[in-house]
Amino acid sequence: MTLPVLIPVNRLEQAKGRLAPLLTEAEREELALITAETVAHAAGADAVILTADPRVIERMAGRYRVLAEDPAVHGLNGQLERAIARLQADGTVADRLLILHADLPLVRGWTIATLAEEDDGPGCVVMVRSADGGTNAMLLHPPGRFRLAYGPGSFERHAAAARAAGLRVVESPNRELQLDLDTPADVAALLATARGQQTAAGHYLLAIGADRRLAAAQT
Ligand SMILES: Nc1nc2c(ncn2[C@@H]2O[C@H](COP(=O)(O)OP(=O)(O)OP(=O)(O)O)[C@@H](O)[C@H]2O)c(=O)[nH]1
Ligand SMILES: C=C(OP(=O)(O)O)C(=O)O
């Protein structure tokens, strides 16, 4: 069964603001592009990139399906709901949809496959919580039963809304989906493991000396 994967990608100049103490603006933009590539690659033919950024569109178009944001809609939640409606209307989305953040450096194809196995059938929502209480991944079976509520601390809001809509909430302990790259502590966590260092984001962060900057900040 195919699982469409909707990946919202923020405008690069607005992305990764909480990494400003560690990375320059150009570095944050490059890191955001690198992790978006990683996530899109993991989703492969099921990926649908949602963005308003011309560089992201240029980089992804041709390899992945890309939806441009609707300029008449305000905010991430409205954009996602608009995109889901478009994907339902054209038949891309039927009974299941995974919304996946674009800043997950450890995600692989099998990570998504493993998450999909935690879906126990119609009426199920599988969610992955980030360190700061966000919703890094949310598999909706089906989509459209409650309003999306991304923003700080969204995991608890999504879980409560899903339960209020009569859905079963499964919190996945999927470690590869729990790590996002919002803060210097997240970067440190990625670089603390050999596996993390071997990711595309890890390679880039080591190449620009983010490990040395983190160490210097601690002394
Ligand atoms: N298309 C789209 N994606 C967004 C928007 N805002 C955030 N995102 C994406 O939503 C996911 C979660 O974003 P965050 O990690 O909270 O935010 P961010 O864009 O990195 O910015 P910071 O809050 O500065 O870290 C990521 O995949 C972002 O790329 C938006 O306005 N439009
Ligand atoms: C804003 C969110 O994500 P995070 O804070 O984890 O980046 C969210 O998932 O709603």
UniProtKB/TrEMBL annotation:
Keyword Nucleotide-binding: yes
Pfam families tied to this protein: CofC
MF terms in GO: phospholactate guanylyltransferase activity
Keywords: GTP-binding, Nucleotide-binding, Nucleotidyltransferase, Transferase
Pathway, per record: Cofactor biosynthesis; coenzyme F420 biosynthesis
Reactions catalysed according to its record: phosphoenolpyruvate + GTP + H(+) = enolpyruvoyl-2-diphospho-5'-guanosine + diphosphate
EC number of this enzyme: 2.7.7.105
SUPFAM superfamilies: Nucleotide-diphospho-sugar transferases
Family: Belongs to the CofC family.
PANTHER family: 2-PHOSPHO-L-LACTATE GUANYLYLTRANSFERASE
Functional note: Guanylyltransferase that catalyzes the activation of phosphoenolpyruvate (PEP) as enolpyruvoyl-2-diphospho-5'-guanosine, via the condensation of PEP with GTP. It is involved in the biosynthesis of coenzyme F420, a hydride carrier cofactor.
Protein name (Swiss-Prot/TrEMBL): Phosphoenolpyruvate guanylyltransferase
